[in-house]
Structures are given as C-alpha cells and as structure tokens.
C-alpha cells in the first residue's frame, strides 16, 4: 500500500463551466495530520476544489491524489478513505441521530453489529448520546453539524473535507463544531476546511491557502499571513471631527506606523504591536484631553484585508470601512 | 501534532480494500435505503394522511357533491366508476413525491454524501424506487379501505382485484423515473412544488373522473391516450366496475396498454434519469 507523506496532492487542477474557470491551475499539498484552511471569498472556487478532491466532480485538467490514490482512476479507494461534510448538514431529518449513523454505517459497508457499535462510539465522541434517540428535526444547528461530522467519520477516514462547516451557525454552534474538529485532529485525521472567515481558519488551521479566482494566491501559516497584513490595528472614532487631530496624535504615540485619518468617518486607525498597552494608553490620553469618543477598539486583520493586500486591489475604501472592529476584549486565538 | 490512531478504530473497522462484490452491494445498499424509507413511514405516519387528503376529499366531493350530476355513459353508478379513477389519480400524482424527495436530498447534500461514499451508486436510485413503490402500496391500501367504507366494491374476484392493484403499482413504478429525472432537473423545493401544474392536468385529462366520450373530441382523444386512462379503464374492467369504454382502439385495448404504457415510459425515462444522475459529476 502506498504511504506518501501528503494526504492531499493537487497539481494544476482545472475546472471550467462554459467560459467560467472555476479552478484555474489550483495547486495544493496537504501533509498528513494537519488541518489545512482553504480561505477565499464567495465564488473563489473552494467548493469546486473540495468536490473534485472528494470525487464528486470530474476535473478538466491537472492531477489530484487523496490518501495516496488518484481521484479519477481510483475513486472508490479514495471514497473509502475520506469523509465529507458539505455546505449543508447532510443528514436525514426524519430519522434519529442514532438511526442516521447506523444507516450511513451500513452504507459504508460495516456489518450490522459494527454499525451499531460505531454509531454509539461516535455519538459519545461528538457528545450526542443524550439526543441520540430524538429526531434530527429537533436538533440545533450545531448538533446537526456534529452529527454530520460524525457521519463523515464512520470509517475513521484519513482525510476529512469540510466545506464551510460553521456557516449559518450561531457562536455557540460554531464553538461546538470547532471543538469537534479539534478532537479529530487529536486523533490524527487530516482536515481540509474551507471558510470565508480568517478568524475560523486562525482558530483551527495549521496552514492556510488563500484562494482567489480558482488559484492559490498565498499559502502560509496563519501567523505569517496575518503579519503580511500588519497585525492588529487600533481604531478610534471621535464624535466631533474637530477632535480628529488630537486623536491622531494620541494614536501616533502608540502606533508602529503613521496613522490613517478619515474625516468623513471621523476615524483614525493605525497598526500597533502591543495591543492592550496601546488601547489603555490611547484611552487615557483621549480622556485626559476631554475628547468625546464614539468608538475605540482593536481590530484584527480580516480576510478582506488579506485579500486587498494579496490582490493589490486597494479600491479607495479604507480597510477599516468594514464594521467588523473587534472589541478590546477579544480573546487570543489559540490554534489547536 | 499527534498522529496516533484512535484506540477503538483499527480493531473493529473493516479491511478498506476487501473484495468489491458489486452485485451483492447493489442489493444490500438498495435494501438499506429501502429500510430508511420504511423507517420514515413508521416515524411519521401522518405523512400518509396528508398525502391521501386530496384523494379522500375527492371521494367525498366528486362522489357526493357532484355525484348525482355526473353520468356514466352506458349506465352504472358514478361512485363505482370514480373509485378506480381516484386510485389512478393518486398514482399519477405520485411522481411529484418522488421528485420532491430527490430535490430535497440534492439541496440538503444527502445525495452528495451518498456519492462520496464507497456504496453502490445505483442504490441511491433503486432504493428510492423500491421505497416509493412500498409507500404507494400503503397509499393504495388506505384508499381502498376508504372506498370500501363509502360503498365501493370489486366484483372481479381476488385474482382480478390483485391484478388491478398490480397495474396501478406498475404505473407508479414507471412514473418514478420521470420523478427522479425531474427531481434532478429542478433547482429547489419551490420549483418542485410547481410540478403540480404538470401533475394536475396529467391526472385530470384522463378517464379518471369523466369518460373521454363525454369530452370535446380533441380533449377526449387526448384523455383516451393518456397512460393514466389505460390503467384506470383496465382496473375498472378487472374490478367489474362500470368502465364506459369508448369505441376507439386505445380504449378497446386498455388492458394491453395498461402494461405497454408503463414499459414505454420506463424504457424512455429510466436511462434518462440514470444519465442525469451520472452527469452530476460534470
Ligand atoms: N455548476 C456550476 N455551473 C456553473 N458555474 C459554476 C458551477 N459551480 C460553480 N460555478 C462557478 O464557479 C466559481 C467557483 O464556485 P465555488 O467553487 O462554488 O466557489 P466558493 O465555494 O469558493 O464560493 C463561481 O464563479 C461559480 O459561479
Ligand atoms: Mg462554496
């Protein structure tokens, strides 16, 4: 049996829909035992890439191996070694959680006793034992997703594909899914996870490939990717535009580069190194000078920032134009 | 990062690349999907009630409200004439249920999950077909009991009666493939609901409620050539119910056509449905 180091190997993948190139020379190497984030905006080609690697879609060019087998030539061997959770929780709504896992277990060709035991095991692992005999209709979004992941894990696959596993979930559901993914990683499953959220990739991934227009445009660790966009920024919005110069001055004292001011938005922002010290310092200065502050916070670089930088597509709008400023209480990301 | 295996795994999971045995798994996987369909029936029996609401309301509406105003050419009780028509209508509408489930499984990603698994891919379609036939048989049984309650009887003897129900199921079987094909073609559940606009005339422009000889000529011809008409007319003859058979060849050969039509429909639409399914990977 071939035992290559790479769990996923994609070389020059091409996929066309008419004139549209959904994938256009997509390359990716995912070492075994890692969590790889595939990050990109809507329409970038994330789903297409996952569907090709999961043998659902035929490729028009290039070559792809998953768990050591070619997806085109030996799809069945690939299917025995992968799990897939798509954009929706693909479970049977009418059946109970337990019935779902037993059914999928049988369809993975487990014997009936094996299917029963494996179902119990997975219900336990994904913390669904209590809800096991309830209809899936009664499940929360996070529970459905966990059941969906459990169903993907029936054969304990080498590679698990997850296409936007937390889209549409509330923060609690999102956390449940993140924990589930971490538990798989601890067992050595290789995970390829697509997401639109840098934050999510940051939480889970050892490495991130940024994809745009069907091609990987950056491939690095989350830390390195974020440092390319300059790390954390401090941001102040004042109530009176006349106070903007004062705010500018206050921010400059703590910034690691010249702050940007935006009169229309009454906003000053700048990159900072020591985020908490910077925040306290600016807050104190502004208070001492009697400046009325509408908003003050730290914000992490978003996917938009990474994108704007990587594609060089600064389109006039300042990177702070997104109302996604994080509050000063944001917790540190702790990748699994 | 740890790469040790989960302790409970390797011990009990099967050899990944054991023998393929495709024929065995085609049947075994089909059976698993069918069992799932049966579990659905058991877990939500009210579904059958909803599904049968329309035919049962029709029994009351056509049988009692319009019944006295409706004539059966050649004589006979209208309600006796009507019941096989309602059985046929229920079968004709059935393809919408098939289409709806196929659409739902597609949009929910269940179809993709199946396709990403090492199971026999044919089972996705055959399992659907067998489940639908079982559901249709339950539908027919409930409907027949309702008909008995309002006074309908089969005078044809046990064998002929079973043969008639067999013809209904044969029609339903043929329509599964149209349902699967449409289910793979329409984009979402709302669009699947719109299929009613097709199903309604398909069921109504037939001999189900009114003898084609009472319709305007062109419509009567259309109704007579509707596969639903052949099945319904053949069943009426087998049940010994008034059949109001016209003089045209198609009406005279209802028994033959009740077998031939479903075979033609299957021969055309089964390959189309399979091809469409395979094209999901495009
Ligand atoms: N079946 C399809 N037919 C036509 N175009 C498609 C199809 N699937 C995807 N595309 C196009 O391919 C591109 C990539 O889509 P997708 O892989 O779904 O992106 P993502 O998952 O990153 O949002 C998009 O521009 C999309 O419109
Ligand atoms: Mg997508």
CATH architectural group of the largest domain in chain A: 3-Layer(aba) Sandwich
Q: For the CA atoms, what is the radius of gyration of chain A? A: 23 Å
Percent helix range of chain A: 25-40%
CATH H-level superfamily title of the largest domain in chain A: P-loop containing nucleotide triphosphate hydrolases
Q: Pairing-aware structural class of the strands and helices of chain A? A: alpha/beta
Can you tell me the CATH class of the largest domain in chain A? Alpha Beta
Q: Write down how many β-strands of chain A occur, each being a DSSP E stretch of 2 or more residues.
A: 14
What are the SSEs and their pairings?
The complex is a heterodimer of chains A (336) and B (282).
Chain A: E1 6-17, E2 20-31, E3 35-39, H1 46-53, E4 61-66, E5 69-70, H2 75-79, E6 82-85, H3 97-107, H4 112-125, H5 141-152, E7 159-163, H6 171-186, E8 190-195, H7 198-204, E9 207-212, E10 215-220, H8 222-228, E11 233-238, H9 244-254, E12 260-262, E13 267-271, H10 275-288, E14 293-299, H11 303-311
Parallel strand pairs in A: 3-8, 3-9, 6-7, 7-8
Antiparallel strand pairs in A: 1-2, 1-4, 4-5, 9-10, 11-13, 11-14, 12-13
Chain B: H1 9-12, H2 22-43, H3 46-65, H4 78-108, H5 110-115, H6 122-149, H7 157-185, H8 189-193, H9 196-204, H10 217-225, H11 227-239, H12 249-252, H13 254-278
The complex binds adenosine-5'-diphosphate and magnesium ion.
Brief overview, please?
The complex is a heterodimer of chains A (336) and B (282). With 336 residues, chain A is α/β, with parallel strands linked by helices. Chain A is built from 11 helices and 14 strands.
Structure notes:
The complex is a heterodimer of chains A (336) and B (282). Chain A has a six-stranded mixed β-sheet, with helices on both faces. A four-stranded antiparallel β-sheet of chain A has the order 2-1-4-5. In chain A, strands 12-13-11-14 form a four-stranded antiparallel β-sheet, with helices on one face. Chain A has two domains: 6-226, P-loop containing nucleotide triphosphate hydrolases (Rossmann fold, 3-Layer(aba) Sandwich); 231-300, 2-Layer Sandwich (Alpha-Beta Plaits). The two termini of chain A are 30 Å apart. Chain A is an alpha/beta fold. The relative contact order of chain A is 0.13. Residues 314-336 of chain A have low confidence and may be disordered. In chain A, a hairpin with a 2-residue loop joins strand 9 and strand 10. Chain A contains eleven helices and 14 strands. Chain B has 282 residues and is an all-alpha fold. Chain B has 13 helices and no strands. In chain B, helix 3 packs antiparallel against helix 4 (78-108), helix 4 packs antiparallel against helix 9 and helix 11 (227-239) crosses helix 13 (254-278). At the A-B interface, helix 2, helix 3 and helix 4 of A face helix 1, helix 2 and helix 5 of B. Bound molecules: adenosine-5'-diphosphate and magnesium ion (MG). Residues 17, 20, 22, 40, 42-48 of chain A line the site of adenosine-5'-diphosphate (ADP).
